[in-house]
Amino acid sequence: MACRPRLLAGLALAALLVPACASGPEPARGFEPARFAAWDDSAPSYRLFPGDQIEVTVYTAPELSGTVTIAPDGRAHLPMVGAVMISQQSEPEAARAIAQRYAAVLRDPIVEVRASDFGSQQILVGGEVNQPGLYALPDGRTGALEAVMLAGGFQPTAKRREVVILRRGPDGRTMMRTVDLNAALSGNGGDAIPLARHDIVFVPRSAIAEVNLFVEQYVSNIVPFNQAFGYALANEVFDDN
């Protein structure tokens, strides 16, 4: 289980990575929506992640085809060409990256990549919950309230009406929105967003503006802070398993 400072640092890193505009629920006073991209409910194309298993087919050299597990550093180790970075790429993007590498040793390589098995399906739950940390995503219907229950429930200081969800968007930027879990607890909706792999659920203590406070407090301790969004979670996943 990750300790609270690491969780907060991971959250701050995720928040820092997006210089985009935002929309959605009205932000609380002091909150800076420009840090986040507009929320998009459409499902992004699947992006590969450390621990995923892929089938690499090299049509122009079948002897090079095979099954590869993406290493914790995000690279696939392939015959003849060695390590190729493919984490956070879609299957077609990974195929192009591998084909480009094989072009140094093959003439006009044709490569296909398909994910055959998936690694960690975890979410990060932090803030004013009793047991902050990484949790396995039970199924595709798990919402923010279920995530908080996995983390031991709310602390008395939790701001239940403005629980934050952070997610990597279709364009790779970090999206943010809030959900009202008080309404969800009373059966009046408020939690209709199924969580996705590597979502971050953050329960603030007083207001959503607290997210900015964490960014300001922890940014100086995050090195490097310009890594891809997924790597903030990848480091947590592989350090804690």
TrEMBL record:
- Keywords per UniProt: Signal
InterPro entries associated with the record: Poly_export, Poly_export_N, Soluble_ligand-bd
Q: Which residues form the Soluble ligand binding domain?
A: 125-177
User: What does UniProt give as the signal peptide span?
Assistant: 1-22
Please verify whether the record's keywords include Nucleus. Answer: no
One family name in Pfam for this protein? Poly_export
> What PANTHER family does the record point to?
POLYSACCHARIDE EXPORT PROTEIN GFCE-RELATED
**Is-annotated flag, keyword Mitochondrion?**
no
**Protein name per the record:** Polysaccharide export protein
Q: Where is the Polysaccharide export protein N-terminal domain?
A: 42-114
What GO terms are given for molecular function?
Answer: polysaccharide transmembrane transporter activity
